[in-house]
Amino acid sequence: MKVLLLAVFLGLICSAFAQTQHCFDKSFSTGIRSVETKKNFLDETMMFVNADLQQMRFDIKQYTFDNNTNVSVYIDYKAKKKYVLFIQSGLCVVEPISMNFQPFCIAKNAVYFGFDVIGGILGADLYKERSLGFERRISYSPNSNVPVSVVTIGGNNVIIEDFINWNNQPPSASLFTIPPECKNKKKSRDVVNTKSINEKINNILRRSL
């Protein structure tokens, strides 16, 4: 249905920089606006990461011509569980996870290839990286240590992601409280297809590779 990838990000210094993995804040919150050209939809996501708690939360709004989806996803790495809450229906799907908490980073194989000035004022380093058959072109602001945008190319598709309102303060623990709907044992994962949501979250988490 909808597949989203999330991805983030100077001479001799850049060569040395590319040989080490660059990571962003361990705890942060950010907005992500995404457009996937092949699927004709707009995606707005709020992402919250708290490294001390080893928890993440994604509030996802996907807009298409014929359907809108509003979902919150909670990932608890200590409990090894992921909770997918569909806001409109109140349905919650609980799934096990095997991954460990990882920092949000530019891929280790990223290659520096240029510098842009965005809007006449914002300087951004440009990187290219490849993973799992996709090529990503990352704009990264070295002065503020935040991703600016990511363009992902692969599978006859182009995905454009803009990062907005990056905040490097750890999100409040209350944001990661598991909703009561997700504690209702009567809810079953067989009732709803979570494939597109899982694809989105898994692709965002590839920032840790």
Report on the structure:
With 209 residues, the protein is mainly beta. It has helices at 12-18, 195-204; strands spanning 28-36, 41-50, 55-63, 68-76, 81-86, 91-96, 111-118, 122-131, 134-141, 146-154, 157-167. The protein has an 11-stranded antiparallel beta sheet with strand order 6-5-4-3-2-1-11-10-9-8-7, with helices on one face. A hairpin with a 4-residue loop joins strand 5 and strand 6. Residues 1-20 and 186-191 have low confidence and may be disordered.
Main attributes of the structure:
disordered N terminus, eleven-stranded antiparallel sheet, 209 residues, mainly beta
Task: Assign an overall shape.
Answer: globular
How does the major sheet shape up? 11 strands, antiparallel
The helix/strand series, from N terminus to C terminus, equals HEEEEEEEEEEEH
Strand content: over 45%
Q: Percent range for helical residues?
A: under 10%
| Distance between the amino and carboxyl termini | 25 Å
Structural class by helix and strand composition = mainly beta
The average pLDDT score comes to 77
Low-confidence stretches: 1-20, 186-191
For the secondary structure, the number of strands is 11
